[in-house]
Amino acid sequence: MKTGDRLIVLHITKLGENSIVVHCLCRKLGRRGLICRVRKGGSLALFMPLSVIDAEIAENPKSELWRLSGASQALALNDIRKDPYKNAIALFMSEVLYRTVREDAFDPGLFDWCEKTIATLEQLPAGCPNFHLRSLLELCSAMGFSPGIQDLAPFAGEQLANLQRLITLPLEECLVYPMSGKDRSECAAALLEYLSSHIGIRINVKSLAVLQELFR
Question: Model confidence over 62-97: pLDDT tens digits?
């Protein structure tokens, strides 16, 4: 079976000299790991984190991993790739999704939310240091948890008031709501703890330290 699909890249793993495994969300197939052949020395720019691409996907009789071919860019992310702040947010979000969404999980609503969020990040003006926090809250809702402030209270520590503001403020105000880098980092950690409690897996996101350094 061979099908065309749109996918969002979460992570890649090199497999020998000429192949990679693309860990991704597919609109039709859900969370998948797909084998893709690449030219030796060829560019992997098409498969950077949160890239949105169209491709052909085919069953692989020799492996549980299906094959990906004919990949092409579906959404230009020029600003995300050029802006170090947006790029750091993209790395963070892709890592969260990679560690949160289970293999073979299928949720078209989650895919649509991810695609919309990536497009929003690309179009935002510079200077929106809370985007990753609002996105974490929206991700919880997209996965069916919809946290209120009472749900977050056990994880909030000293950040309960800031989390309440992030939940209740309109998007435009939320994205520029003033917080220190320490506050942002602790809010992100609280939201990741909340997510971990629901999916039963400890979410360790290394790229959070990069955001903390950038948004001090």
Answer: 778 899 999 999 999 999 999 998 999 999 999 999
pLDDT at 167 over 80: yes
Among all chains, which residue has been given the structure tokens 């897996």? 201
Phi and psi at 102, nearest 5°, equal -75, 150
CA gyration radius, the chain: 18
Give CA separation, 110 vs 16, 78, 114, 169, 176, in Å. Answer: 32, 24, 6, 23, 25
CA–CA separation, 162 and 9 (whole Å): 31
Neighbours of 72 (CB within 10 A): 8
Q: CA-CA distances (angstroms) from residue 82 to 2, 36, 132?
A: 35, 26, 18
> Fold for domain 78-214?
de novo design (two linked rop proteins) (1.20.1440)
Residue 144: pLDDT band with limits 50, 70, 90: confident
Assigned token pair, 47: 């498969």
* Architecture of the domain delimited by 2-73: Beta Barrel (2.40)
**SS3 assignment, position 23:** strand
Residue 72: left if φ>0, alpha if ψ -120 to 50, beta else—which one? beta
Tokens of 22: 């693309």
pLDDT bracket for residue 41 (50, 70, 90): low
CA distance 34 to 103: 11
96: nearest Cα among 142, 55, 127, 54: 142
- The Cα 157–Cα 206 span in angstroms is 21
